[in-house]
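look at this fold:
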Amino acid sequence: MIDKYKLFKDTMTKKKLLILGATVNEVDVVNYAQRLGLYVIVTDSHTDWKLSPAKHIANEVWNISWSDIDTLQSYCMAANVDGIIAGFSEFRVDSMIKLCARLNKPCYINEKQLAITRDKSAFKKLCASYNIEGIKEYSPESKTVPFPVIVKPVDRAGSIGINVAYNTEQFQHHIENALALSPSKQIIIEEFIEQAHGVKFDCMYEIHNGKIEYIGSCDTVMLNNEKGCEVLQKAWIWPSRFNDLFINEYDAKFRKMISEGIGMKNGYCDISCFIVDNKKLLVFEAGFRLTGGHSFDYQRKVYERDYLETIIRCAMGMEISDNVKPAAKMLKSIVYGVYVKCSSEEQFVAIEGIEAIKKNQDVITFVPLIYEGFKFSNKPTRIFMCNICSNDVIQIKKIVKFINETVFVTTNKSRYCVYCALTEDEIDTCLKGEKVNSKSDIQSL
């Protein structure tokens, strides 16, 4: 079997890749780029490396804001940087585009294409021109808004500034909050689709040499124990139970929109929708950044190539092969975002039970999201995320149950179990499998 990593290293040894961002999410990206044989530089403005743990493993570190294009341009020229990628932020994607243009470096996306998706209303209008329906919108000045509605900045992602309003008082408060967090000072009001009637559905496409590859879809399980948490996501489950519906009825429209409407030639596109009443798709946003669920790790298990590698190849000016290994159709995955709920007066001290999780061969990604001294708010806090990937659904369930029963967070005041744990019924809604009947089933983990 050909060792693609050796082939990559033979070509890329001593080549320099700059990653904009150095958060805990970028740790996975740095490790993978180094595995490919690249010399990796990370940059952001944090001098406290607890906030930027990717700096501990990078080959070189710059304490420069990823938005300081002038300074980064000078540093890149002095260091002979060969390619640049953004991390898990659309703002960093914007900086990547600008910096690549200054340095005449390859970039998989341009400012016009990014603008299409940063404005959620404009993106839905583009979708409508390809006969793809969007979630219903309302004017902020409307006197007849049918509550509940979701209020959010038109140009933010990652659940930032997004809230659900159930009455007029909340509506006005959330509008002010969304406006404050919107760079363009624009907001969008949408129908709120409750989990009982609709499922958040993400579909992903990889584009190389103008050829569009559908790389899968997932369903999202929301953290729905209480009001105020409706937009928090606790699990992404692959593949989506609506995968066949999407391919048969919507895939061709999306491909045409990506090719003609956005004009992508290389890179990656993630499109978020709701499937309502198990049959109707409503789109609401899209993005070109790496996704918080690290879906490229799952794709790497399914195909010979993943979209992170495609983005790196674009940045380094390398050719992108059209040869893609067929999907392993039986492979299942749950990306589990584990929460606790503490008070705002508490600080994180330690987590119990994670070493066995990290060592399990079916856990392909583990991302710790808090650190010693981390200050909690009164809202649920995601403490880590892990991707459990297997052909065996019952094995996935065992690991989830193991997490729910053994993970505890200690603060300076108390000790907490997992909050709003992912349940077997929630898994069964998406992935069918045998029941996990006893504690003895999980002790072998």
In short: The longest strand covers residues 211-222. The two ends are 32 Å apart (CA to CA).
